[in-house]
Each structure stands twice: as C-alpha cells, then as structure tokens.
C-alpha cells in the first residue's frame, strides 16, 4: 500500500510536452518552482518550504534541512503544492522547460529510489522526497562535472522528470556496463553503480571534442539517457549567437567548422 498520494496523469504533446495531473478530493501534487502551466477551479496553490515530504510532520529544522539540500543542486528553497479542495476531480498541468520528453516514474516499482540529474525533477505526488545524492568516490567528485551532485527521489508515489531531446531507456543486467557522456545521463535506479572513467589517449583528449570523462554505469538496473543535454544546446546557441558567421555554406566555412568542432 502506498504512503504517498495516488495521482492519475496524462502526458500531452510530442517535443514540448506537458503533464496533466488529475487529483481526487484532498489529493496533492508538488511541483518544481516555475513548472506550473494551468489549473482548474477548486485547486489551492500553496508555496511550501523544502520538498513537501515533511510538511505534515517534522519540525522547523527538518524543513530547513530539506530546503538546504535543494540549494545544493541549484534549486529554489521553495516548492509549490497544488491541492484539490473540492469534491470533484480536478486537473493541474505542468510544462517542460525546453524541448524534450517527460518521463513518469513509479517509485514503488523501482525500489523506492531513483537518482536523476539535478535539473530533471518536474513534479511528483505529495510525500515524495526530493533530496541530494553525493557521489562518494573521489574521482567521481573531482571530475564528474554535471553528475557530481544529483537529485534523489524517494518514496512510493509517482514522480515526473524531464530531459532534452529523445529519451533512451536501457535495462542493464548484473555486471553489464554502459559508458555515457556525463551530460547525457538523466537518471538511474538505486542498484546501478555509477562512476567516472577517463577517456584516455592523447588524441582523444585533445582532439576528440567529447570531453575528458565518461559516466560508467554497471547493472543491474534501469538507466535513462537524453540525446540533447540542455548545456550542449545552450552552448551551441551561444556560439552561433555571438558574432557573425558569414562563411556559412562556403567550402572554407566547412573546413573551419571541422577545426572548431561544428563538423560533427
């Protein structure tokens, strides 16, 4: 039996998705700051301190600790709770922040915990805890980049994460290993072993253009990978948005792009 609120949902759209949550009377969903899109009548919106998992119990220090953990992953101290105060079913909708996919995750089916990228969380049933997961190994901590501090979703309810581009889900068998670009890693289940591996080779290091490190994941468990990390998209937009590139389309421009990494 679930201890978190049970919610129904519908994902709408293809590349710029939103998720519509259907709430029974008194049911609550918590949303990341800035993810709200729209809601129907009888839904009460309340800003809460921390992740909402300790609001019904716990003292001020519990809430302060919960909020402080969110600061470490670059999130707001506050989240928003949406509660159906009426007697009929009502709907509230959350939108993805950039092109990509919304992935529903039933934490009960995944052993009660999923580790995800620090900006991946979108919304969840009330009771789901949104904390932090430090990578304990020194190499992972020093070189993990985007994967050093990750979010930890715990509970037995539904949670929704968002990632860029196309999402690939892989199920790893025991001891099966997968190497992933550190920015492309979205989430993995609790039993997957996560580490950082040096690419190696002087040519790969200097000319590879793919970064110095891989994220290595060893099964058993599930892994979610995104094809377009927001950091990669933002970097490419910034590169093309600063200064003119009059040589676009020319032979010389193509050769130049090979050297600056745009020929891939």
Describe the structure.
The chain has helices at residues 60-72, 138-143, 202-207, 230-241, 251-260; strands spanning 8-12, 18-23, 28-31, 36-39, 43-49, 78-84, 90-95, 100-106, 113-116, 121-125, 129-134, 149-154, 158-164, 167-172, 177-181, 185-189, 193-198, 213-218, 221-226. With 264 residues, it is α+β, with helices and mostly antiparallel strands. The protein has a single domain, classed as Mitochondrial biogenesis AIM24 (Double-stranded beta-helix, 4-Layer Sandwich), CATH 3.60.160.
List the keywords.
19 strands, Double-stranded beta-helix, six-stranded antiparallel sheet, 264 residues, alpha+beta
Q: Which strand order do you get reading across the main beta sheet?
A: 5-6-3-10-13-8
The whole-number mean of residue pLDDT values reads 79
CATH secondary-structure class? Alpha Beta
The fold-level CATH name is Double-stranded beta-helix
What is the count of DSSP helices, taking H or I runs of 4+ residues?
5
- Per the principal axes of the C-alpha atoms, what is the gross shape? globular
Q: State Rg.
A: 21 Å
Q: Count structural domains.
A: 1
